[in-house]
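Async update (no meeting this week)

Hi team, since we skipped the sync, here's where things stand on the single-chain job. The sequence we agreed to prioritize is pasted below, unchanged from the tracker. I ran it this morning and attached the output directly underneath so nobody has to dig for it. Comments welcome in thread, and please keep replies under the output.
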Amino acid sequence: MNAEQFFTYGILPVLGLAVLLIFVRFVKGPTLPDRIISVDLLITVGIGIMVVYSIINDQPAFMDIAMILALIAFLGTLSFTYYLKQKAESDE
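Output:
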Protein backbone atom coordinates (compact mmCIF):
# COMPACT_ATOMS: atom_id res chain seq x y z
CA MET A 1 0.00 0.00 0.00
CA ASN A 2 1.50 3.29 -1.05
CA ALA A 3 0.86 6.68 0.54
CA GLU A 4 -1.79 7.72 -2.01
CA GLN A 5 -3.87 4.60 -1.32
CA PHE A 6 -3.45 5.08 2.43
CA PHE A 7 -4.73 8.64 2.22
CA THR A 8 -7.58 7.70 -0.13
CA TYR A 9 -8.79 4.55 1.61
CA GLY A 10 -7.63 5.21 5.17
CA ILE A 11 -7.58 8.87 6.07
CA LEU A 12 -10.41 10.31 3.94
CA PRO A 13 -13.08 7.86 5.23
CA VAL A 14 -12.07 8.64 8.81
CA LEU A 15 -12.34 12.36 8.11
CA GLY A 16 -15.73 11.79 6.45
CA LEU A 17 -16.96 9.93 9.54
CA ALA A 18 -15.65 12.76 11.70
CA VAL A 19 -17.64 15.28 9.63
CA LEU A 20 -20.82 13.27 10.19
CA LEU A 21 -20.27 12.99 13.94
CA ILE A 22 -19.43 16.68 14.26
CA PHE A 23 -22.52 17.62 12.27
CA VAL A 24 -24.66 15.55 14.68
CA ARG A 25 -23.12 17.49 17.56
CA PHE A 26 -23.86 20.73 15.74
CA VAL A 27 -27.53 19.82 15.31
CA LYS A 28 -28.02 18.40 18.81
CA GLY A 29 -25.80 20.89 20.66
CA PRO A 30 -27.89 22.21 23.51
CA THR A 31 -25.97 25.44 23.93
CA LEU A 32 -24.46 28.05 21.64
CA PRO A 33 -20.85 27.29 22.65
CA ASP A 34 -21.37 23.64 21.67
CA ARG A 35 -22.45 24.73 18.23
CA ILE A 36 -19.60 27.20 17.81
CA ILE A 37 -17.02 24.61 18.82
CA SER A 38 -18.54 22.12 16.39
CA VAL A 39 -18.31 24.68 13.56
CA ASP A 40 -14.67 25.30 14.49
CA LEU A 41 -14.05 21.56 14.45
CA LEU A 42 -15.77 21.23 11.07
CA ILE A 43 -13.39 23.84 9.70
CA THR A 44 -10.45 21.94 11.19
CA VAL A 45 -11.58 18.68 9.57
CA GLY A 46 -12.08 20.56 6.32
CA ILE A 47 -8.49 21.74 6.59
CA GLY A 48 -7.43 18.13 7.05
CA ILE A 49 -9.32 17.13 3.92
CA MET A 50 -7.67 19.97 1.99
CA VAL A 51 -4.24 18.85 3.17
CA VAL A 52 -4.89 15.25 2.13
CA TYR A 53 -6.11 16.44 -1.26
CA SER A 54 -3.02 18.59 -1.59
CA ILE A 55 -0.74 15.66 -0.84
CA ILE A 56 -2.54 13.23 -3.16
CA ASN A 57 -2.63 15.59 -6.14
CA ASP A 58 0.72 17.29 -5.47
CA GLN A 59 -0.84 20.76 -5.24
CA PRO A 60 1.12 22.78 -2.67
CA ALA A 61 -1.10 25.83 -3.18
CA PHE A 62 -3.82 24.14 -1.15
CA MET A 63 -1.48 24.01 1.85
CA ASP A 64 -1.31 27.81 1.82
CA ILE A 65 -5.09 28.03 1.63
CA ALA A 66 -5.39 25.57 4.52
CA MET A 67 -3.07 27.68 6.68
CA ILE A 68 -5.07 30.83 5.95
CA LEU A 69 -8.32 29.03 6.75
CA ALA A 70 -6.84 27.77 10.03
CA LEU A 71 -5.88 31.33 10.98
CA ILE A 72 -9.37 32.61 10.17
CA ALA A 73 -10.96 29.81 12.22
CA PHE A 74 -8.68 30.58 15.16
CA LEU A 75 -9.50 34.27 15.05
CA GLY A 76 -13.21 33.45 14.81
CA THR A 77 -12.98 31.30 17.93
CA LEU A 78 -11.14 34.05 19.79
CA SER A 79 -13.72 36.64 18.82
CA PHE A 80 -16.53 34.35 19.95
CA THR A 81 -14.93 33.82 23.36
CA TYR A 82 -14.47 37.58 23.69
CA TYR A 83 -18.16 38.04 22.86
CA LEU A 84 -19.19 35.49 25.49
CA LYS A 85 -16.94 37.18 28.06
CA GLN A 86 -18.45 40.61 27.34
CA LYS A 87 -21.97 39.18 27.49
CA ALA A 88 -21.26 37.54 30.86
CA GLU A 89 -19.87 40.78 32.27
CA SER A 90 -22.88 42.78 31.09
CA ASP A 91 -25.25 40.26 32.68
CA GLU A 92 -23.63 40.73 36.09
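Quick observations from my side:
The chain is about 90% helix and 0% strand.
The helical segments are 3-28, 32-57, 61-91.
Reply here if anything looks off.
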